[in-house]
Here is the input.
Amino acid sequence: MTSAAELPASSGSTFTSHQDLKQTQESDRLSNKTGVFVTVHGHFYQPPRENPYLDAIERQPSATPFHDWNERIHWECYRPNAFARILNDRGEVVGIVNNYEYMSFNIGPTLMSWLERHDVEVYQRILEADTKSSERLHGHGNAIAQVYNHIIMPLANERDKYTQIRWGVEDFRSRFGRDPEGMWLAETAVDYATLEALVAEGIRFIILAPSQSQRCRPFPTQDDPHPEWHEVGGSQIDPTRPYRCYLPDSYSSKDKPYIDIFFYDGPISRDMGFSDVVYNSHHFAGRVGAAVRGDHRPAQLISVATDGETFGHHKKGTEKTLAYAFIGEFPNHGWTVTNFAHYLSLNPPTWEVEIKPVTAWSCAHGVDRWQDDCGCGGEGGVWHQKWRRPLRDALNWLRDQLTEVYEEYGKQLFGDPWQARDEYIQVIRDRSPANVSRFLSRHQTHKLTAAEQVDALRLLEMQRHALLMFTSCGWFFEEISRPEGTQILRYAARALELAGDVAGVQLEKGFVKHLGLAPSNVDTFKHGGEVYHQQVLTAQIGFQQVAAHYAITSLFANHKTPENRSSVTSQDAASKQPHPYQKRVYCYTANELDYQLQRMGSLTLVVGHLKLVSEITWESEHLVFAVLHLGGWDFHCCIQKFSGRRDYSEIKEKLFTALQQASAAHTILVMTQLFREEAFNLQDLFAEERHRIMQLLSQETLTRLNQLYTQAYRDNYGVIMAFHRDELTVPQELQVAAEIALGYRCMMTLRSLEQDITEPQTSWNHIVELEAIATEAKHLRCRLNIPEGRQILEQLIVRSIWQLLHDPNGTVDADIQRLEKLIDVGYQLNLGISLHRSQELYFSGLHNQIASMCFTTLDHDQDTNKCPNLLKLGQKLAVDVSAIVNQLV
Here is the structure.
């Protein structure tokens, strides 16, 4: 049986024409209100993982070999779905499908912010998918909004409900350029108060699980003015039609406000998550087809919903299944691939529904998974969740305390503090100084001083973190000390800190007392209070830590060495001259006002004056730093507030005088006497930069070791070959020496190739050397473990294809030959290279630049190898080029 998304190889030449025919047929169906419609909805979401103090995700070792879990899931799911392959039975790419163009989807705003920052190509593919689906589906795009940071709406107070919706809508509007028609509720958690807020904010429809319905009935008609209610509380509701849900009298006026609801097909959705049905597009279509009602109704919608991460992350390769189902299997059955908004425009509800009071799709006990020890999400009954209720109570208490602070101090700065909070999403989306100034001008009660502007932003950030601390993931699993629980407590800690900065209130003691009632399953922690002390307080970061990070890393600045860094005195800074050197440290701007470095033997001393500014709250501090590098991994760094030019000059003079004695102990003693503050070292750096510096400090040692291993390998080459010739196990010491030596040689050659890639003859020589290395490694059965080398090769191949397609002055035949050789050597080195990006780039140019070049050559009877060589390159990249080849024959 063929795999999930395979076509026979012979179908490649007719794939495009078949697609054109299907698109014509689909266009006809999209205007027809009758027939079978299919919607696959993906809920794409990742919990916010950013450090609250740095506004960035730090390295997560559990996601290795990736930097963090966002990055790992991105490469396994989000990107593959933007470039889903359709393969023939030879494994060649016949088509590349943007799945977001055909599936209904919501992507959490916090995840979209990450995508926008880390892979703008995929981010743009998602936006383009919504635009194209809107054009295809008569103005109804596939994307729907989501409540902002995935809080459980029935457990939120009224004000937070509205802010979550308004932030979700504004975030959506700023990205997709239109108002959302639908909204995804976190965990599909709903109650009537949530529906009222959604209706008030103009949301037309939501998606729920069938288990969340209570009863339904057809609309009254002249023949049946009082239709009978049907009890469907046991997931018995018919999910093939939309329903209208009127707000109860207690929530609405006499005009009966309403919202439309789609209930996804529960059995198919469960199969998608927990069976193998999505590993084969034919089976998937068959499963969908089994849900089609044969009662001759004019129209019906088969809709399924699941976590979007199912496709590619939880179930590897199933983005291909989805792609072929959309463009192959579903159309072949005569079904129309649509989204909820489009179907609603064709077939508005003719039935009404009442929902159960408080429900969610992942808890059989209402919403107790996020507030009680209900058993959902436990480890098979081994661990309790008695911590859930105290954690919820503690955060509710803190929210109410923060509300008092916000209202008391906010009314002094904002005309309407709560309107300012609702519109703060505009600042979260764009923190440029000009945009923040405009926002403050709109909402201020009077022209704010610089200090008042800082307090205004602190208050708004306090409220942002007060919302983030209710992110549902904190309760979802079995233990409070998991990363998700720790993360929401870190948001709470940041909110506490900001409240103290503005109002001087001390709320932490009361909060920790509440957390002490949340028992942990882990003996190390005992309760939530200990989790807070051990995992939250230890992660707090202030201006001094940022300054220490800047000071130590300044010794390793690769873009500006300390020796040639312009030094400006504090007196110059006071005269408001432009800062000579500015650097961004996460969400801080570091303005270097003075910097002096001296070396004495193995000791290096740096003294400087720094102004740090938070890009988020605009608060700033002037700080003095001194760093003594004793060599190797030993650093001693001291930080204190800048107290004036005279004191600063005195500090510099005493420190550099102490250095003249060339005594590390004496210099450290003087630093301690002058600063009288906590000292920092390499371990106190933020993880990313610490790891970079550790690698730099290790480089000299590693280079020396590589040279030693290379010498050992050369001296014992004949011995190693003799072992292999007689099929004996090579001594581990010699085999390791061979692998390290060849890996080092390979990396040196790749780095040279990277620099010389535009030089034809030189680059060719480097490729020949790589071939020799590959041959040698094969003979000696060496496995080259050089991930950086794999990345260099992949980037060089992409770069070469780009140049081939876009450089009119290139020597095409020679470039193609060299590129093919580069691909071959990538496989010969057995580095595990991926040609996905190269395939995407080649495929995008196949039917325009390449086809155009081939047909132009044919029309003019030119005798050239360019066209055959370009098509041969496609075969090398595993792209099906038979459609063009057959037309040229």
Q: What stands out?
A: The chain has four domains: 6-355, 372-539, 543-685, 695-834. The first strand starts at residue 6 and ends at 7. Residues 687-715 form the longest helix (29 residues). Confidence is low (pLDDT under 50) at residues 559-564, 566-579.
